[in-house]
Write a structure and sequence with these properties.
about 120 residues, mainly beta, Jelly Rolls, three-stranded antiparallel β-sheet, 10 strands, about 5% helix, globular
């Protein structure tokens, strides 16, 4: 029931750096996943970090819906797939960040899932 309480509401991001996220959908079965709309307002940025999981391998697909005039670039040394607007990466295994957003805002659709080790 917490999905109903948390879905479709802007919440502050975990990093405390000014970005907001809106939970769109989540499930625990058959593969645990979540999906968010992420908003990076002017001046926000994400410092280099990883997102560890207790078990399994974490994957995330980010699709840039709107870019700012400058900045807001996703940085990841070893993405699994990357184009200007599409990024597939392992947030648990690869340090990643977003450069400072300047002149507008950045919006990203993000879906992540964890594959359990067998």
């Amino acid at each position: 029931m917490s999905w109903w309480r948390d879905a479709f509401r802007w919440r502050k991001g975990r990093q405390g750096t000014g970005y907001d996220k809106m939970l769109l959908l989540t499930a625990r079965w058959p593969v645990p996943f979540d999906s968010y709309l992420i908003r990076y307002p002017d001046g926000s940025e994400i410092p280099p970090h990883t997102d560890p999981v207790q078990t399994g391998r974490h994957y995330r697909l980010n699709i840039v819906l709107k870019s700012p005039r400058h900045g807001g670039e996703f940085i990841c040394a070893t993405p699994l797939f990357a184009t200007r607007r599409i990024k597939l990466f392992r947030p648990d295994a690869c340090e990643h960040s977003v450069t400072r957003v300047v002149g507008g805002s950045r919006y990203v659709f993000s879906i992540g899932w964890v594959l359990r080790d067998r």
